[in-house]
Amino acid sequence: MNFAPGGKLRAAINLGNPILAHAAGDGGAGGVSVDLAREFARRLGVDLELVVVDTAGKSVDAVATERADIGFFAIDPARGAAIAFTAPYVLIEGSYLVKAESPIRANEDVDRAAHRVVVGKGSAYDLFLTRELRQAQIVRAPSSPAVVPTFLELDADVAAGVRQQLEADARDRPGLRLLDGRFMVIRQAMGVPKSRGEHAAAALAAFVEEMKAGGFVADALRRHGIEGASVAPAG
Q: What span, in angstroms and rounded, lies between the C-alpha atoms of 118 and 149?
């Protein structure tokens, strides 16, 4: 079991999910996922190298192709071919945003043939809605933070993504509103290339369970001021 064959642990960090990671002033990154990566590297007794990307798809690709040793992902079956996921450590709500004057009042109103729904390309929301929406057209923005700008630029009907990101966009731009409730719950987990074997996957899974049970994840959420995300139950 070797998590760091190059002598240091390479962790893929996706800045497209503002709940778990954010850009740091030194060109690096900070956040809950970075804290977990740093603690895991400490326990392995190796240095940490952050592989910072701006979309979920790039993070998946980095781990699947072993350009990174671990990563942080929303669990989705489409991503499971090359990556072994732990149980989730955080649960995050996915929500819809519309224009204030939109006739769309509830989540159930979204899947209509005339509607265009903007999502971040390769995000968990993209993967989920691609399976679930039967009539609405999905429009893919380059990244999750670009969803609302793309939604406005294209005069689309719905924006879909992390509730906290959409709430922030709605505060900054008048004339937008979130629909009540959620259309999905994102299960955020850590992952390792399946090629590293079952022992590596089991060790990472055990680490995540310890981080949840011991309060590390809850403390990290508080430390970074994250609201609307909750620690996942024991896996």
A: 10
Vertex 204 angle, CA 203 and 207, to 5°: 90
What is the CA 19 to chain-centroid distance, rounded? Answer: 8
> 87-144, pLDDT tens digit by residue?
999 998 899 999 999 999 999 999 999 999 999 998 888 989 999 999 999 999 998 8
The tokens describing 35, both together, are 């804290």
Convert the pLDDT of each residue in 49-70 to its tens digit.
999 999 989 999 999 999 999 9
Provide the 3-class DSSP secondary structure of residue 55: coil
Closest CA to 201 of 190, 188, 215: 190
pTM for this prediction: 0.78
E strands along 172-228, which residues?
176-178, 184-193
Could you tell me if 3 and 43 are in contact, meaning their C-beta atoms sit under 8 angstroms apart? no
Tell me if 225 sits within 8 A of 31, measured CB to CB: no
Quick one: average pLDDT of 20-34?
A: 88
What is the identity of the amino acid at 169? D
Tell me, what amino acid is at 97?
Answer: L
Phi-psi region of 7 (alpha: psi -120 to 50; beta: other; left: phi over 0): left
The Cα angle at residue 81 between residues 76 and 84, in degrees rounded to 5: 75
pLDDT of 26 strictly over 70? yes
Q: Please, how many CA atoms are within 13 Å of residue 206, restricted to the half-sphere of its CB? A: 7
Q: Which residue has the tokens 């909750």?
A: 230
Assess contact for 29 and 20: CB atoms under 8 A. Answer: no
